[in-house]
Amino acid sequence: MSGREMMASISPPTTEQAEGIAASADMGTMPAGQSWPSARRAWTCVALLACAHMINMFDNGLTGFLVTLIKADLQASDAEMSLLIGFAPVAFYALVGLPMARLIDRYPRTIVMPIGSLFVGTFTLMCGLAQNFWQLFLARMFVGSSATVNGPGFYSLLADYFPPHKLSRAIAGMQVGFVLGTALASLLGGVLVAMAIGWGTSDWFGLTIRPWHKVYMVGAAGAFLVSLILWSIKEPDRRELATLKPGEKAKMMPVSETLHEVWRRRAVYLPLFLALGFMSLEMGGIAPWRVAFMERNYGWDVAKIGAWSAGTMLIFSLIGLPLGTWMTEFFQKRYDDAPVRAILVSWVIALPFSVAGPLMPTGELMMLCTGVGITFAMASAIPQNTAVQIITPNRMRAQVTAMYLFMMTVVGGLGANLLTAISGALGGEAYLGEAMALAVAIMTPLAIICVMTGLKPYAREIRERREAGVM
């Protein structure tokens, strides 16, 4: 797409669209007979979603600690491992992401999401029983079903529990689960792998169960626990039902209409989507290989890597979340493009530190550079989610969220393959660090350019919505 097309002006909302957006953007004023859930119920939902998010991220982070063991046992190449840790878990998302988001829009979320987590637990357990590469690949592929419902479902629930002016803080609260889960995976993942190695290899009904199989079994237990947590959340009333006329049924936008609306407003949406895609391609390539890189390059064992990674993730992420909130609110007082501008500033600051990290002579210096990059990556997460949610009508929000997460999950899943391709072009596995730095040096500037092209269209969209009286 050309820069001219990216900057094309968007048509103002129609009267019908303005009314629909106004209903979803009303700053806490609800129609007679329908009030917002109590603060206690709402924040209980945030706490439960944060717990579920934490466990999911812990489970997702375990595979990075298993790369060396799986590669040795299955005699797989780096390219095959990239398919396993990158492509496999997102393939299912690519196929069913939007249809599953429609389920979130149409049926009780506290039923759809727990069922999805049950499937995740079942297929994670199958990872713990896989006897060859392709069995593990297929099981990992179906594990990706979790992301098809949890992301859109989490945001949909929060939007019905909190009025818009309080939604960003609820999202930040939920993101604490991401931080804690990732930190726990880094800290306990290495410990768990070390324990599993101590358990040794065993036979079970003719199957050879190696240490990495047992780690996956622990992960399966976590997915089943997530299902119970999600089942305990009380389904809130959907906000759009309050605006219906007597006897009128709620109608969600079909996928075709949602795609048409996103394309019609492409000058606003595409820069955000493409920017996230480039950043996800970078992060999806580096994260799964970071443990293996530190083992090879610095001689660290998984326990030490886990302890340092956990501390780095926890400290710098908890700095980044309030920083992102502050930047967004600071720019909101001065610019119509506030969330997009906050994203831009965060990524520009993160760029040099993220490039330098894998080129550092010691593991400690790499972790320090990585930590600064994490701070501003987490800071950008708040305005990224805010930017999409506040311009998207409620009746298509889950589907648009699924499209947005598609860029992170599916495109990001290809990053591991990109990294092995770059290292191969540079000379092989010995150049993994240089490949990581080069991936950042290419992808982050492309993401920054996309965000820059989206500043004016986003500001224009906000002004038009304000003039139409829907903000």
Automatic annotation (TrEMBL):
| UniProt GO MF annotations | transmembrane transporter activity
Q: Give the membrane topology, semicolon-separated if more than one.
A: Multi-pass membrane protein
Pfam name, any one? MFS_1
According to the record, the signal peptide region is none
Membrane-spanning residues? 45-70, 82-104, 111-131, 137-158, 170-195, 215-233, 267-287, 307-326, 338-359, 365-382, 403-423, 435-455
Q: Which UniProt keywords apply?
A: Membrane, Transmembrane, Transmembrane helix, Transport
> Which Gene3D superfamilies does the UniProt record give?
MFS general substrate transporter like domains
Indicate the segments forming the Major facilitator superfamily (MFS) profile domain, all copies: 45-459
* Entries under InterPro entries matching the protein: MFS, MFS_dom, MFS_spinster-like, MFS_trans_sf
Q: Which domain of life is it from?
A: Bacteria
PROSITE patterns for this protein: MFS (PS50850)
GO cellular component terms listed in the entry, alphabetical order: membrane
> Where does the protein principally reside?
membrane
Task: List where in the cell it is found.
Answer: Membrane
Query: Which PANTHER family is this protein grouped with?
Result: PROTEIN SPINSTER, SPINSTER
UniProt protein name = MFS transporter
Query: Where does this protein come from, organism-wise?
Result: Altericroceibacterium spongiae
